[in-house]
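We emphasize that the prediction below concerns an isolated chain of 98 residues; any contacts that depend on oligomerization or on bound cofactors are therefore not represented. The input was used exactly as deposited, without trimming of termini.
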Amino acid sequence: MRSTRPEEPGSPPYVKDCLSWGAGPRAAQSLIHAARARALIQGRFHVTTADVEALALPVLAHRLVTNFHAESRGITPIAVIEKLLVDTERETGGRTLP
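Result of the prediction step, given as a token string:
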């Protein structure tokens, strides 16, 4: 969640350029709760990265606020989240966590 915050030192450059407000601690809690619910609905007692990835867009999209620079270029919060998901997958090398 911290990577969505433009003021964080480790945020990607496109987040700093496009967002004026990122996801807070309650967004992380909501994502965890939603991922747990999805796992239970699918008959599992454990959350997978697929659960988190599937729910990242609907949980986070309304929590990010784009700035004028992004809006003028047609960049939406959804586009930023999708890019973050791709970059996060690249950082982990496409591995699934145990």
